[in-house]
Design goal:
- This protein is α+β, with helices and mostly antiparallel strands.
- The chain is 27% helix and 29% strand.
- Helix 10 packs parallel to helix 11.
- A hairpin with a 5-residue loop joins strand 12 and strand 13.
- It is built from twelve helices and 21 strands.
- The chain is elongated, with a radius of gyration of 24 Å.
- The protein starts with 6 loop residues before the first strand and ends with a helix.
- The strands form two sheets. Strands 6-5-4-3-2-1-13-12-11-10-9-8-7 form a 13-stranded mixed β-sheet.
Length: 490
């Protein structure tokens, strides 16, 4: 059945039986012969998934021939993405989390195929990462199932229901009216700095650094450049639905004497999300920190996650770095971690029916993908050039080798409830520091996660995304004291 390309639809977003958001879409032909698809998304504060209020709006334009011309996205956090040109070549649809309107648009445009037996192959683009994926839709009973594990229910009116790959989360067609708000009407979420701080904003201008320097109005004992983890987070550790607590951590450290510079890394679709670009921005941050801190104040590199490895990589360049602080840092390379995980799966028979030879063959393909010759493997895995390059850059980071080369005192910090790294990671880093014969210390903080925030201990897997969690005062005091001890400040 041919469906009118001019349509508008609204879907409720639910977790089990609880509606926590809505997404809407409107498709229409424009006077110049092009067509636009506008999608709205709004999610509310929802404690069960630790999601906070957020708005997002996108506008997709197609040519007369149906080719994608441009995609523009704005959100309530001030994010703004524009994709156009070669990155959209050959793309049929956009994948944007929760914005099921893009899938609905695909169903309308390919209606005859979705009312057939399939399978259907579609080249899709991730809106934020820019990664290309060849998605296949196959018949499953009366519905469809994608190769990324979404289940679609479709009738003569179009898309009716989507079961997402995330357990319990679904989108269901509703009869609600289209929204009327625009991103301009949304209040951008702003980080509120604590009282008692002197805040200096560094504008990007012609350089690459866009950052904030905070220090106490009282006495400071040290100043640090903070290198955050890879991911879609701003300088304060926030993303669309997550708050890793970076802003809170650095503000409170400044109050107790550890001034710091935090910087923007850019959205995942920007060059700033690559490790090499993160290194360059962190280097610029260090040079600016020298000016802001003033003479006589010890300087420290603080890194978190992959950012900790970037801090280690830069440490030999900075003769004035008094120490490197590693928070939630991996102690194994990506290759070692996957090999150990594969061995564990085989030993514990977690993957029944999977032969060791097949698993090792897959590991070999992944190893080749981490090399510059692994283009075919990367394409097979659905990674575009940017995504493959990011994996290679992460794969090239050997944490223990970086500790050996750093030549600086090392403080390893680990939240006891961190689910992203293990005690073995911390042990490996400490062993490397001992071999390097540099001063080192291990600080294990009970009851907190990798962001040093209090752990709700619900084992939900969403502990890192609770905007209401705080960093305990005792943790902040112990961390500040440990930093002062490793650099010899009394």
């Amino acid at each position: 059945m041919q469906i009118d390309p001019n349509f508008h639809e609204t879907f409720d977003i639910s977790y089990r039986t609880n509606v926590f958001g809505q997404t809407s879409c409107r498709s229409r032909a424009l006077e110049d012969g092009t067509a636009e698809l506008v999608c709205w998304l709004e999610v509310q504060d929802f404690a069960a998934l630790a999601i906070r209020w957020y708005r997002r709006k996108s506008r997709l334009v197609r040519s007369r021939e149906g080719r994608l011309v441009s995609l523009e996205i704005r959100d309530s956090l001030g994010g703004h993405w524009v994709l156009e040109g070669p990155i959209l070549a050959g793309i049929e649809a956009i994948f944007d989390p929760y914005m099921v309107g893009h899938i609905s648009d695909l169903v309308h445009r390919r209606s005859s195929l979705f009312h057939g037996d399939g399978p259907i192959a579609v080249e899709m683009l991730e809106a934020e990462s820019g990664a290309r994926h060849a998605i296949r839709f196959s018949r499953e009973g009366t519905g469809w199932r994608s190769s990324t594990n979404e289940r679609l229910t479709i009738n003569h009116q179009g898309l009716r229901h989507v079961e997402t790959a995330a357990p319990g989360i679904s989108m269901t067609r509703s009869i609600d009216a289209m929204p009327e708000w625009d991103i301009a009407s949304a209040s951008p979420a702003r980080h509120e700095y604590l009282k008692g701080l002197e805040v200096t904003e560094i504008e990007k201008g012609d350089g690459i650094l866009e950052a904030t320097f905070v220090r106490s109005l009282g006495r400071s004992t040290a100043a640090a450049a903070f290198v955050g983890d890879i991911g879609p987070y701003d300088r304060n550790g926030r993303s669309a639905v997550a708050d890793l607590g970076t802003g809170e951590l650095l503000d409170h450290l400044a109050l107790v004497g550890i001034a710091s510079l935090r910087f923007e890394r850019g959205p995942p679709s920007s060059p700033g999300s690559q490790v090499s670009a993160l290194v360059e921005t962190a280097r610029a941050a260090w040079h600016r920190l020298r000016d802001l801190a003033g003479a006589g104040l010890p300087l420290v590199l603080i890194g978190q996650g992959i950012g900790a490895l970037v801090a280690l990589q830069l440490a030999p360049e900075f003769s004035d770095a008094a120490a490197v602080v590693l928070i939630a840092a991996p102690g194994q390379s990506l290759q070692e971690m996957l090999e150990n995980e594969a061995a564990l799966l085989l030993r514990n028979a977690v993957m029944p029916g999977v032969r060791e030879a097949d698993l090792r063959q897959g590991m070999g393909a992944f190893s080749r993908m981490l090399s510059s010759q692994g283009a075919a493997e990367a394409e097979h895995a659905g990674l575009d050039q940017r995504g493959a390059q990011l994996l290679r850059e992460i794969g090239a980071l050997d944490p223990c080798s970086l500790v050996l080369q750093a030549g600086k005192p090392i403080l390893v910090v680990r939240g006891a409830n961190d689910r992203t790294t293990s005690f073995e990671d911390a042990r490996l880093l400490m062993s490397a520091a001992k071999v390097a014969q540099v001063p080192s210390a291990l600080l294990v903080l009970q009851g907190v996660t990798q962001g040093l925030q209090a752990d709700p201990d619900d084992d939900s897997g969403l502990y890192a995304f609770d905007p209401k969690r705080t960093i305990p005062d005792a943790v902040l005091k112990r961390l500040a004291s440990a930093i002062e001890n490793i650099i010899g400040v009394k």
